[in-house]
Automatic annotation (TrEMBL):
Residues that bind Mg(2+) 2: 68
Keywords linked to the UniProt accession: Cytoplasm, DNA damage, DNA recombination, DNA repair, DNA-binding, Endonuclease, Hydrolase, Magnesium, Metal-binding, Nuclease
Protein known as: Crossover junction endodeoxyribonuclease RuvC
EC numbers: 3.1.21.10
Protein species of origin: Gluconacetobacter tumulicola
Length: 168
């Protein structure tokens, strides 16, 4: 069994989800959101994200982590701030010696729903179906669990290829 941490980075809300994977079985462990105060300076908000993610790494001891890749939007300032949060999300597990993978939104949707054009509601519905014990309170947590599920699928495929197992 391996424990995976999925992260959906954001400066205001960073979603996180922890799952255990044994073969093709997925088991929900925990999920939630790290929220920062929009009235506080960006460096303090990044410190809050860092501290929250560090606490998760220490409390749940994941073996691997996966972070959703940033999409570029029309507002350059928003994209840059999202990039800051994403940098923290990549750095924290790396500092703890945890391997970190990255997945684009379309890859996550394809792995969880079956189509890269899935809506947020479809992703959340499938996450709830795949992880019935999940206590999702915000879409950010659902997205983070979806990132973890995506990593579990990609990881399983990579292990099969490395082991020489043929898939029908």
């Amino acid at each position: 069994m391996v424990r995976l941490l999925g992260i959906d980075p954001g400066l205001r809300f960073t979603g996180w989800g922890i799952i255990d994977v044994a073969g093709n079985r997925l088991c929900h462990v925990a999920d939630g959101v790290i929220a920062t105060d929009g009235d506080v300076a960006v460096p303090e908000r990044l410190r809050c994200l860092h501290d929250g993610l560090m606490e998760l790494v220490h409390r749940f001891a994941p073996a691997e982590a996966a972070v959703e890749e940033t999409y570029v939007n029309r507002n350059g300032a928003s994209t840059l701030k999202l990039g800051y949060a994403r940098g923290v999300a990549l750095l924290v597990p790396a500092l703890a010696g945890i391997a970190v993978s990255e997945y684009g939104a379309m890859a996550v949707k394809r792995a969880v729903v079956g189509t890269g054009a899935a809506s947020k509601e479809q992703v959340e519905m499938m996450v709830r179906r795949l992880l019935p014990a999940a206590t999702i309170k915000r879409a950010d947590a659902s997205d983070a669990l979806a990132v973890a599920i995506c990593h579990a699928h990609h990881r399983a495929s990579a292990l099969r290829v490395a082991g020489g197992t043929r898939m029908a």
